[in-house]
Amino acid sequence: MDARERLDGMRREVDAELGRRLSGDGSRLFEALRYAVLGGGKRFRPLLLLSAGEGFGSGRAPLLPYACAVELIHAFSLVHDDLPALDNDDTRRGRPACHKAFGEGQALLAGDGLLALAFETIAEAPSGAGGAGRKEAALREIAAAAGVGGMIRGQWLDITLRPGEADEAAFLELVRLKTGALIRASVTAGALLAGASASGLAAASEYGDAIGLAFQLRDDLADAGRSGSPSGLDALAFFGPDGTRARLEAEVRRALSALDRERVASAELRFLAESLVREAA
């Protein structure tokens, strides 16, 4: 079985577990939650967490609740991003955005519910072989990435910065926080849960940091001419198409070098990194 097939198997496990956790009580609220989470998506962040955890020696089962949690947090961010007060997008993944399907107030509450459910999912997760210390470390990593020092701060910058007010450094900081923080935390949480060494955690963090930036560069290339950001900022405005592609390739090389330096034998992590370059071709 090759890396693509193993990742497809992981994706199916994540989807099945998300479906179970969102089965709820048949109410309109849970219908909105399922609509936001189960209506597509590549599960990139859960796959990173599972691949990193397995790459550093963990079994899959203890990682699965955390993989679901990062996807719930990601879905929460998309529901809120689409609201008129933020990105004001009417569609998501080829169908009406949550607020168009259920109403703005309902979508706001659905996003809140997904965020709370993510941390409920982590709280209920068994401590696993590494004991409570690993669980607490992964929880801190994910919470910090989702919160005011991570994704929320990035979203704040995105609705307050304007193109004429931001330089390249400000743009890269926005990406590092809004997009990159949860991607990086997905990788490092997996490594933490597996009990990676200090040097292993440093490699996981560098891989995650590089992949977080590469992910946004790939998206900006795909969305050329159509900024999906309230600030109107994207990579092409600073680097142009060729420069953006070159930076994307450089970040993927940096991610792979981090794995090689620590001898992390994860075909899945390599595949996920290299897929960003393939998708931008």
Description:
With 281 residues, this protein is mainly α. The chain has one domain: Orthogonal Bundle (Farnesyl Diphosphate Synthase). The chain contains 13 helices and two strands. Strands 1-2 form a two-stranded antiparallel ribbon. The model has no long low-confidence stretch (mean pLDDT 93).
Summarize this, please?
With 281 residues, the protein is mainly α. It is built from 13 helices and 2 strands, in the order H-H-H-H-E-E-H-H-H-H-H-H-H-H-H.
> Which architecture does the CATH hierarchy give at level 2?
Orthogonal Bundle
Computed over alpha carbons, the radius of gyration is 18 Å
**For the terminal residues, how far apart are their CA atoms?**
26 Å
Contiguous uncertain segments of 5+ residues: none
How many β-strand stretches? 2
Main structural class: mainly alpha
Strand content: under 5%
CATH class: Mainly Alpha
User: Can you tell me the number of structural domains?
Assistant: 1
Overall body shape: globular
Relative helix content: over 70%
N-to-C SSE string, H for helix and E for strand: HHHHEEHHHHHHHHH
The CATH topology is what? Answer: Farnesyl Diphosphate Synthase
Number of helices: 13
Averaged pLDDT, please?
93
Largest sheet: 2 strands, antiparallel
